[in-house]
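#onboarding

Welcome to the new folks! Below is a worked example of what a typical request in this channel looks like: someone posts a single protein sequence, and someone else replies with the predicted structure as tokens. Don't worry about understanding the tokens yet, we'll cover that in week two.

Example request:
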Amino acid sequence: MEGVVDHLMRDMLTRVGGFDLCVTEFVRIVDQKLPQKTFYRLCPELHEGGKTPSGVPVRVQLLGQHPQWLAENALIAVELGSPGVDLNFGCPAKTVNKSKGGAVLLQYTELLHDIVKAVREAVPAHLPVTAKIRLGFEDKSLAIDNAVAIDEAGASELVVHARTKTEGYRPPAYWEWIKKIRAHTRLPVIANGEVWSYEDAKRCQEMSGCNDVMIGRGALAMPNLARHIRDNEPPMSWPELAQLLIDYSGYEIYGDKGRYYPNRLKQWCGYLKRQYPQAEVLFDNIRRLQKADEIVAVLQQSAATAK
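Example response:
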């Protein structure tokens, strides 16, 4: 989730708990070996053994179209401390697809195979090489072929977002297609897409046949979603969530000239309002504010009112 789940958000969410693994925003690979500073910028956790402050492993994700360059950069990532490498074949963004990255590659089964094979051969055998795909680009006709190609190329596991690129993020997710893919591969498969609650996760597991689920937007809409799914813990209350958003202001020092917290919090409200009607009111109250202390004051009042 480029531009959303950065290392600060990963820190915040993994402190809430319930996650077994995080994947970074993608590192865009074109036609060269990137400097170490690029990997450290997108994955500062590399300085700490490839884990968030709460101890959750963070795997570097690469996006690109050239097998050899992806392989060479994958080796850099693991040498810097990434506990494996993830390959992004699922990003639906137009700008990414125009430059032959992400989901557009789902039209080229042989290229998927070549990329995974090259990266697998570059990365030491004891470290995983994983891939994330969608069910296809415009349709699902290559869904099984693509998964089989990734399997045969030596991937360690596969995450499947149960929609095509053209279906974007529109409901529903076609979890039953993941079960079809599982029937044709030996890979451990992880289900992804349209999981917002405990009930969604259980239906996804039943329809896909997968034990494991990857969550993205759902974790932003309900920060304790991972624990809600794993332990059937109740959704975080609004006062608890407001305190979490207040705690998030502590990251302001890492922001861009003091704007990180206000901008990111307003963006976060767009996800939170799916589960919390209070988030829409909060956004209306902070949309013109630019200082962290002003926003924190609004949050404190909101939390107090809800108690």
